[in-house]
Every structure is written in structure tokens, then in C-alpha cells.
Design a protein that fits this description.
With 79 residues, the chain is α+β, with helices and mostly antiparallel strands. The chain has four helices and three strands, in the order H-E-H-H-E-E-H. A three-stranded antiparallel sheet has the order 1-3-2, sandwiched between helices.
């Protein structure tokens, strides 16, 4: 996971599929505090989400700005 590289500006995008909640839970407040955007692969932001603790896996996309988020989501989703 290259989320820390996104936070420090080394890369523009960090993404990982099929993570457990414990894999991303601690990263969400760090990403938010750094001014980055964290969404799932459908574009739903994680900041104020109520997590389904019965869900098996989460997709995690982190970018430095909304423009990059939009571009990556279009590529992921084929739109």
C-alpha cells in the first residue's frame, strides 16, 4: 500500500482492493488530516461512512485531489 507516498506527495494515487476494515481503519483519519481523498472504487468517501462490520472486504483509493479521484474512478469503472 503506497498511501504514505500519496500523503507526502511522492505519488498521486494509492489504491488497494479487497482490504479488511482493520487494514484501512487507522489510515482514514491520517489521510483526511493530510488533505487527501479516500474513497472506495465507486467513489463513496470513507470519512463519515458507517462501516458494515459484516462486509468481507473494502476497496481503498487515496488521491491528493478530486480531479485525480474522478479520473482514476473512470478508469477503474470503465466509464
Amino acid at each position: 500500500l503506497n498511501i504514505l507516498d500519496v500523503i507526502d506527495g511522492t505519488v498521486d494515487v494509492g489504491l488497494e482492493a479487497s482490504l479488511s476494515l482493520h487494514d484501512i481503519g487507522a489510515l482514514i483519519p491520517i489521510v483526511k488530516k493530510a488533505g487527501c481523498i479516500a474513497t472506495d472504487f465507486e467513489g463513496n468517501e470513507y470519512y463519515d461512512n458507517i462501516f458494515d462490520f459484516n462486509a468481507n472486504k473494502y476497496d481503498f483509493l487515496v488521491t491528493r485531489n478530486i480531479e485525480t479521484t474522478t479520473k482514476v474512478l473512470k478508469e477503474i469503472n470503465g466509464k
